[in-house]
Specification:
about 475 residues; about 0% strand; Serine Threonine Protein Phosphatase 5, Tetratricopeptide repeat; elongated; mainly alpha; single chain
């Protein structure tokens, strides 16, 4: 029970390390992107940009005229009546109540006119901002056609500042982020566009492409399936989803080769020929094959040992030939079957440049130690980072340790291999999860390295990096 708990604990620690490494890479990419944007903003502030002058007249922005305010008509005849004292009855007799009520109604109407004017000003400003946003969008579209994606991002950003309620600006900027390989920013812009318009299928498709690049396969599949539910005739989403399914099938079953390279409409329409199959007795074939495969083993005997049988001197008279064996005696003798010899797999001549090519060649060698040693020594140590860019497999690492331990002499190539292999991603994690047998092999290699070579900086680095408890 304790061993199972420890195994689960180790698996959980390994998963946490993987997640932390992925998060650090993502944050590092995001920080570099923000630093680049800040530098570009500072350079644009310091130098006067002439990008708008080089643009063709896509749609000249003309600020619409501000609506004229209605001039208030002041009624000079109606003057504010002075307050009448309570004991002045003569003045109260002359007071016109209807005129005063009319004056009060006119003042309230002037207040309503002012509110209407404020609303008209807000509508006018909103209209100006929307026209500016459209102008910046057209500039961004022109830069996008010119493949100036960085400048297009700046124009789309200005359009978003003018009108942050339009999902098209976010989706267009996400497309530029996708071409600039800023997949995290592309996913964020697509998510904002979807929040503004849940039926915007282009944003779903671009977010799926970005999620595929950052290895969020399941979420990308959900986006593609949603597109096909809303628009079943979308060929781009259908092809991308089929590609994801094929990759999953390849990972599950290995590489799959199609039975026919040509499509059905381009295949031959001629009728196939029927070949008659003749049955042959397998006993005759097996007997003939066994007679061909028989080999005579010659063993050298020591001449000093006494022979168990007395030596018979050759007689002068020739001895009669032995009688031929009868068929019954031949049938009574057991047939000797020899084990077929394992043929050595030819070593690939091309040096691998990708991890997929290395895994394919390594598995084709069928764990033959000599062929794997020759194949691995042909690979330049400097190319380990590209071949093992996704990490080193534990079974491959155990096999490499066995190859190193079986070498008769430790040379400079082995030292370079050990030094460069440590630079691959997550190598320390594989080193910490080595088994007892692999640890013994590594200790013998390090001991031989320390005894047979003089101490240099590279050797000291190798001894320090490969040190295990």
């Amino acid at each position: 029970m304790s061993s199972e708990y420890e195994r689960k604990l180790i698996d959980m620690q390994y998963q946490m390390r993987e997640n932390n490494a992925y998060l650090n890479d993502y944050m590092k990419d995001l920080n570099t992107w923000t630093d680049e944007i800040k530098k570009k903003e500072e350079s644009l502030k310091n130098t006067t940009s002439s990008t708008t002058k080089d643009l063709p007249p896509v749609r000249n922005f003309i600020e619409p005229p501000k609506p004229k305010k209605k001039s208030k008509k002041k009624n000079s005849s109606t003057k504010t009546s002075s307050s009448i004292r309570s004991h002045d009855y003569h003045s109260w007799d002359k007071y016109d109540v209807d005129a005063e009520c009319k004056r009060i109604d006119n003042e309230q109407g002037d207040g309503d006119d002012e509110d209407e004017e404020d609303e008209e000003d807000e509508e006018w400003q909103e209209q100006v901002l929307k026209q500016k946003a459209e102008y910046y969008k057209d500039c961004g579209n022109y830069q996008f056609k010119q493949k100036s994606y960085a400048q297009a991002i700046e124009h789309y950003t200005k359009a978003i500042e003018c009108d942050p309620t339009c999902p098209i600006y976010f989706a267009n900027r996400a497309q530029c982020q996708l071409f600039e390989q800023r997949y995290g920013a592309c996913e964020a812009d697509c998510t904002l566009a979807i929040q503004l318009d849940k039926n915007y299928l282009k944003a779903y498709y671009r977010r799926a492409l970005a999620r595929i690049e950052i290895e969020k396969i399941e979420q990308a599949r959900q986006d593609l399936e949603y597109i096909l539910t809303r628009e079943p005739s979308n060929n781009d989403a259908k092809n991308k989803l089929d590609e994801l399914n094929k990759n999953d099938e390849i990972k599950r079953l290995g590489r799959i080769y199609p039975l026919h390279d040509k499509p059905i409409d381009k295949r031959s329409t001629k009728p196939l020929k029927r070949i008659e199959i003749q049955e042959i007795d397998t006993s005759i074939i097996s007997s003939s094959e066994t007679t061909k495969k028989k080999t005579i083993v010659i063993e050298e005997m020591d001449t000093d040992l006494p022979s168990s049988e007395p030596i018979v001197p050759p007689s002068s008279s020739p001895s009669p030939p032995p009688p031929p064996p009868s068929p019954s005696s031949q049938s009574e003798k057991p047939t000797v079957t020899e084990k077929p010899s394992t043929k050595s797999v030819p070593i690939p001549t091309t040096i691998p440049t990708t991890g997929f090519q290395f895994k394919r060649d390594w598995s084709n060698l069928n764990n033959q130690l000599e062929q794997q040693s020759i194949y691995f020594n042909k690979i330049p140590p400097k190319s380990y980072k590209t071949i093992f860019s996704t990490g080193l497999d534990s079974s491959v690492f155990s096999r490499i340790l066995l190859l190193w331990s079986n070498q008769t002499n430790i040379d400079e190539h082995l030292i370079d291999s050990m030094y460069e292999l440590h630079q691959t991603p997550r190598f320390d994690t594989q080193l910490s999860f080595l088994g007892n047998d692999d640890k013994k092999l590594l200790k013998t290699i390090l001991q031989r390295l320390q005894n047979e070579f003089s101490s240099t900086d590279k050797i000291q680095t190798v001894l320090r990096d490969y040190k295990i408890d």
